[in-house]
Write a structure and sequence with these properties.
Blueprint: H1 24-48, E1 57-62, H2 64-73, E2 85-91, H3 95-101, H4 104-110
Parallel strand pairs: 1-2
């Protein structure tokens, strides 16, 4: 993606690495702070060059990360940046979690799995 869009910037969040057993509000706040810090740095750098184009914020979340991401987006420090929201992609497949509690036979009878 960076090859196709060399001026786009990406943040791979690290705010909650090794800290995912806590309160979702706390994890959301850490993510919101990380995003705001990243965006501020990029906006400051770009505005110094005199060419500040349209800002588009896009988010991709997976599994529990979606809950953390949605919590971060409701944090008060994100409010000034919500107008820049462009895309939110939620990657989840609850079937993976369902397999833990259902046997394969049950899934076949429900029509979830087929041959």
């Amino acid at each position: 993606m960076a090859v196709d869009r060399p001026k786009d910037r990406f943040l791979m969040s690290e705010a909650n690495e090794e800290k995912t057993s806590g309160d979702f509000r706390e994890m959301g706040q850490r993510l919101a702070q990380e995003v705001v810090s990243f965006v501020k740095k990029k906006m400051d750098k770009i505005s110094r060059s005199g060419v500040l184009r349209t800002i588009k914020l896009s988010f991709v979340g997976h599994s529990i990360g979606n809950i953390i991401l949605r919590t971060a987006l409701t944090d008060i420090i994100m409010e000034p940046y919500l107008r820049y929201l462009h895309t939110y992609l939620s990657l989840s497949l609850s079937l993976g979690h369902t397999l833990v509690i259902f046997t394969v036979q049950t899934l076949y009878s429900m029509g979830v799995c087929g041959s």
